[in-house]
Design goal:
Order of helices and strands: EEEEEEEEEEEEEEEEEEE
CATH class of the largest domain: Mainly Beta
Radius of gyration: 16 Å
Structural class: mainly beta
CATH superfamily of the largest domain: Jelly Rolls
CATH topology of the largest domain: Jelly Rolls
Distance between the termini: 18 Å
Strand order of the largest sheet: 2-3-4-11-6-9
């Protein structure tokens, strides 16, 4: 199994087409896939101004506020009307929804998961205490707060804003916080 480690600040920042922020891509699978052909993709976005979200037909999305005042998400048909203002509270919606984002109190950062409907699905959990995760052949962990010990095919430690992902082997992980304020994003991708 190959583990791919990352540190958020070391990921390249790419500006959005509309100029409203930047994205730091963590992983896009399969290798070499672009925005029209990925099966699953994870990124961190910095939202700096109000504006529309890009529409992705056939894609399921999960967005999680990491820091900042958050955004109010509103679709033109009012099917989505959600204040994303609580950190570490994942919110799922259809990628084809025409979403407008309005900043609530300054800029913010969010964690984004996108999966191609009918190909795979995402299960995103916020872990705050020791637990045994279910086996997954593809997934990702990112430490948001505190330090973590991950025991699976090998032992790994994560500091805040560090993570790892894998896509080629089924692994069950034991997740162990190393500080009382620890919070970890745990993503499993099911085919």
């Amino acid at each position: 199994m190959t583990l791919h480690r990352f540190t958020v600040n070391d990921l390249p920042a790419m500006p959005w087409k509309n100029g409203g922020g930047v994205t730091r891509e963590i992983v896009c699978q399969p290798p070499g896939a672009d925005m029209d052909s990925f099966d699953w993709r994870v990124s961190i976005a910095h939202i700096a101004s109000d504006g529309p979200f890009s529409a992705f037909s056939g894609i399921d999305r999960v967005i999680t506020l990491l820091s900042g005042g958050g955004v109010h998400l509103l679709s033109g048909d009012a099917q989505v009307d959600h204040p994303l203002d609580t950190p570490l509270a994942p919110f799922a919606f259809a990628g084809e929804a025409a979403i407008h984002a309005r900043l609530l109190a300054g800029d913010c950062h969010d964690f984004n998961v996108m999966t191609r409907r009918g190909v795979c699905s995402a299960s995103l959990q916020v872990v705050r205490s020791a637990c045994d995760g279910s086996a997954a052949s593809q997934g990702l962990f990112m430490a948001v707060q505190g330090h973590w010990l991950l025991e699976g095919a090998s032992s790994q430690t994560l500091a805040p804003q560090q993570g790892l992902w894998w896509s080629d082997a089924s692994v069950a992980w034991r997740l162990r916080p190393q500080s009382p304020d620890a919070a970890l994003l745990a993503l499993n991708i099911s085919l």
